[in-house]
Design a protein that fits this description.
The complex is a heterodimer of chains A (669) and B (163).
Chain A: H1 5-44, H2 46-57, E1 58-64, E2 70-71, E3 77-89, H3 97-108, H4 112-124, E4 130-136, H5 138-148, E5 164-173, H6 181-184, E6 186-187, E7 193-195, H7 196-200, H8 202-205, E8 209-216, E9 222-227, E10 235-238, H9 242-259, E11 263-270, E12 275-282, H10 301-304, H11 314-323, E13 332-334, E14 339-342, E15 345-348, E16 355-357, H12 358-363, H13 367-377, H14 379-388, H15 417-422, H16 431-442, E17 446-448, E18 453-457, E19 464-465, E20 471-473, H17 477-492, E21 507-517, E22 522-536, E23 543-550, H18 559-562, H19 564-577, E24 589-593, H20 603-606, H21 625-639, H22 644-668
Parallel strand pairs in A: 2-10
Antiparallel strand pairs in A: 1-8, 2-3, 3-4, 3-5, 6-7, 8-9, 10-18, 11-12, 11-23, 13-16, 14-15, 17-20, 18-19, 21-22, 22-23
Helix pairs in contact in A: 3-4, 9-19, 11-13, 11-17, 21-22
Chain B: H1 2-75, H2 78-87, E1 101-105, H3 114-122, H4 140-162
Classes of the chains: A alpha+beta (669), B mainly alpha (163).
Chain lengths: 669, 163
């Protein structure tokens, strides 16, 4: 029963076909399985897997750009931000929180129990950010990296510790500590400006949030980075001169302490441009340690507190008389018996001035003459001038929280309001407003808006200068000149003698105002605001300096005694530093240590002995006997009785000789 | 017939050879492409890493520049200068206030408090410079150094005058 070859061949084909089909079936099953799996992975689990892949490969970081820097007018950085690092933990990546907390605490010298609790809480709350050490500088960060290094762990980022990461952060620093603190202000931990220029210019200074998309390899190394382009924050240049600011702060602090005043402020302004060169407040604060600062020291009292200006305001009253051409500086005015009745209220002068010319009345700060002037000018014109000089409105200086003061409209005035306002009561002004009014007079009647920002600039860009400040002619140039002449008399013969400068003419006005007592709703005659606002050189003022002291308690408390010396010290130093041409003869003056101004200094302590060190670093030489004799001779000459012309010649000669002697001594020292 | 078959076989073998060669070339091209792409990929990653490192370096240098600028500002701040002056032997140990020279008129001024007036009046010889910035006694070493300097200065002056 042999099979035929034909059937054998057919059988073999059948077997081969079956085998082939089996192989095909296996392949189909295999490919089908793969396809099903691929479908499952790529279609049904697409989103989740994509997310997982991105999570493994990509890293998104959000960093804030460094906050802009604040410079003074000489490019000294007053506030700047530094990059720092914050160490944080991602608790979801830490398996054993207690063990991790123990290791971290040991390395960083932290409280292990507290840290463990923090991590546990973070893990339970599914948090991905638990800050461990905030705002560390680079050196400390590297120290921590070394301390946290785990030998058997391979991690792309430092620190080489599971679940710990560094976050880029920034820290604001104020290198000059308390200098111009109220002007600069401060920013909080979230980089938000909270006071001063930091607050008012927060939009410009604030660093934008940038998004960094990092592609990482399996070891966590960044091989590609995409950073979203954002505009860099701008830097701000102030009109403040840090050297003048320091001078002003030092003089102010010294006088506040000496006079036992509650506080004080000094403003130095350039009348022609409205630039504020210095704005000092005392007591001050250090923005670097803001948490330790008393809240009341943070406010900038020069723009955020008001006071009754007192006699300083007579500049406006007497100015209104000149502007309305009721008087000229030489016109005579009679203060009568030194009292005046207005609406059943008696106003009097502290000392009778009698019949004097208008300029003398101003120099002696006569209340009666001021009231007579205001009555002559009339309510509406007086109020109009007050408004035009900027009272009752914000000056527009680029600082936050400026208040506008209180100037009531004439309809709301009482019978004696005009008289009260004429002598600086029933009106509340800020120190900057009154400084602005004096600056207007210094600038020939043109009011320039005070400003504190010189320019705003972006890196790699041309600086953007602040638009020109508004200028308005408020009083005529002639009135302004007359007022300056009258203010010069205040310094020469009136209440502001202590404001006399050496080599420069000065003009100004003193003011001593009683403070308002909110409880008794009347003025408190035991509490003063003593001020002096002046300008120099008198004929062409380069600076206006305002000094306001709140409640001086020790010694003479009037503006001429307390504030004028500060004006003198500040103005003298600034004018010399600005190299303003001297316009007055050098007087015989004595250089004494400022510390010796308070009462009863030992005579020996203030007199230099030969061999002592001078300011310039040289030694004081024994006085030249020839010079001494010369001084005596001059004295003898002046003691002689002389006619008016001769007297003038003698005074002039004496001044010239003294100037020469002083120059000789100066060159010797 | 045999000859014809042989010729056909030779032809087909030639074609096969050509095909194999073509496949080989294509394979090599593909392989080279893969190799090239791989190389490109890894070199781009390498460049990316270098780029990232350089960017980090730029950031670090900028931070360092800022730190130095801040350090410069801090060191030139009045407080630091005062500290440095104190270290060098200058300054005032009795008060924390700097003693700046102040101008006070020697002429009789009603506004001047009695203390200053008395002080100036009590001065027997009206020396123009009574006291300058520092009134703290200078340490011995410093005084010696100053005396030496002054000696040198006076010697120099003498030389100049002799000339």
């Amino acid at each position: 029963m042999k099979r035929s070859p034909k059937s054998r061949k057919k059988n073999l084909r059948q077997v081969a076909f079956t085998r082939f089909m089996l192989i095909v079936a296996v392949f189909v099953l295999w490919i089908g399985g793969i396809s099903v799996r691929l479908f499952q992975l790529q279609v049904t689990q697409h989103a989740a897997l994509k997310q997982k892949a991105i999570g493994l490969r990509q890293d998104v970081k959000h960093d804030r750009m460094l906050r802009g820097t604040i410079f003074d007018r000489n490019e000294r950085a007053l506030a700047m931000s530094l990059p720092v690092k914050t160490l944080y933990a991602n608790p979801s990546e830490i398996t054993d929180t207690d063990a991790a907390a123990k290791s971290i605490a040991k390395a960083l010298k932290l409280d292990a129990v507290q840290l463990a609790a923090q991590l546990r809480l973070g893990k339970e709350g599914n948090k991905k950010y638990v800050a461990i050490a905030k705002k560390l500088d680079d050196e400390t960060a590297q120290k921590y990296n070394r301390a946290l290094d785990t030998a058997d762990l391979k991690k792309g980022d430092l620190p080489n510790f599971t679940g710990l990461y560094w976050k880029d952060d920034q820290k604001r620093s104020y290198p000059y500590n308390t200098l111009a603190a109220q002007v600069i202000g401060f920013s909080n931990a979230e980089d938000d400006g909270k006071a001063g220029v930091e607050q008012s210019q927060d939009d410009v200074l604030h660093g934008a949030l940038i998004r960094k998309l990092q592609e990482r390899d399996r070891l966590g190394r960044v091989y590609d980075e995409t950073i979203s382009e954002r505009e860099k924050p701008s830097d701000i240049v102030l009109t403040i001169n840090s050297a003048y600011q320091y001078m002003a702060e030092q003089s102010l602090e010294k006088q506040v302490r000496a006079s036992g005043a509650r506080s004080g402020m000094v403003i130095v302004m350039v009348p022609k441009t409205g630039e504020i060169l210095a704005m000092a407040n005392y007591p001050s604060f250090d923005p670097n340690t803001i948490t330790e600062t008393a809240a009341e020291h943070i406010s900038n009292k020069a723009i955020q507190s008001v006071y009754s200006p007192g006699s300083v305001f007579k500049l406006i009253t007497y100015g209104s008389g000149l502007e309305k051409k009721l008087f000229t500086p030489g016109d005579m005015i009679d203060s009568g018996n030194g009292t005046i009745m207005v609406a059943d209220r008696k106003f009097s002068d502290s000392h009778g001035v009698g019949r004097v010319n208008y300029s003398q009345a101003f120099a002696l700060s006569s209340n009666v003459c001021a009231i007579k002037t205001a009555i002559g000018v009339g309510k509406d014109d007086f109020h109009s001038l007050v408004q035009r000089l900027g009272f009752g409105a914000r000056t527009g200086v680029e600082l936050p929280g400026e208040i506008q003061g209180v100037v009531r409209s004439p309809e709301r005035w009482n019978g004696d309001s005009l008289a009260s306002m004429a002598i600086g009561y029933e009106i509340d002004v800020t120190a900057l407003q009154i400084t602005g009014a004096f600056a207007t007079i210094a600038n020939d009647g043109v009011r320039v808006q005070p400003h504190i920002i010189k320019e705003i600039r972006r890196s790699n860009e041309q600086p953007k200068t602040i638009t020109e400040p508004k200028q308005t002619q408020v009083v005529s140039a002639q009135t302004a000149r007359d007022l300056r002449t009258m203010m010069r008399q205040v310094v020469l013969t009136g209440t502001g003698k202590r404001a006399q400068l050496n080599g420069y003419t000065a003009a100004g006005k003193t003011g001593t105002a009683w403070k308002f007592n909110a409880k008794s709703k009347s003025v408190d005659s035991s509490k003063y605001i003593s001020s002096f606002i002046g300008m120099a050189p008198a004929n062409n003022p380069e600076i206006v300096v305002a000094v306001v002291m709140d409640e001086p308690k020790v010694g003479g408390r009037d503006g001429g005694m307390v504030s004028a010396p500060v004006f003198r010290e500040v103005a003298q130093q600034i004018l010399e530093d600005m190299r303003v041409a001297k316009d007055a003869p050098f007087k015989q003056e004595t250089l004494i240590a400022s510390k010796d101004i308070p009462e009863a200094p030992p005579v020996d302590a203030i007199r230099a002995k030969p061999g002592d060190k001078t300011e310039k670093g040289t030694t004081v030489k024994p006085a030249d006997p020839a010079d001494k004799n010369k001084t005596k001779d001059i004295k003898k000459t002046t003691l002689k009785k002389l006619d008016a012309k001769g007297k003038m010649t003698a005074i002039f000669k004496r001044r010239m000789t003294l100037k020469k002697i002083a120059e000789r001594v100066d060159t010797k020292t | 017939m045999t000859k014809k078959r042989k010729a056909t076989r030779r032809k087909s073998e030639q074609k096969r050879g050509q095909t194999y060669a073509l496949i080989l070339v294509c394979g090599l091209l593909v392989l080279a492409g893969f190799f090239f792409a791989g190389r490109q990929h890894f070199s781009s990653m390498d460049y990316g890493m270098k780029n990232s490192r350089l960017r980090k370096e730029i950031n670090d240098l900028e931070s360092e520049k800022r730190r130095l600028l801040l350090a410069r500002e801090k060191s030139s701040s009045p407080n630091e200068i005062k500290k440095a002056a104190k270290k060098a032997g200058f300054g005032d140990s009795t008060a924390d206030q700097p003693q700046m020279a102040q101008l006070t008129s020697a002429t009789k001024d009603k506004g001047v408090p009695p203390t200053i007036a008395a002080a100036t009046a009590a001065a027997p010889d009206k020396t123009l410079i009574v006291r300058t910035a520092s009134i703290k006694p200078v340490p011995q070493a410093m005084t010696t150094a100053l005396v030496k300097n002054n000696k040198t200065a006076s010697q120099a002056k003498r030389t100049m005058s002799a000339e």
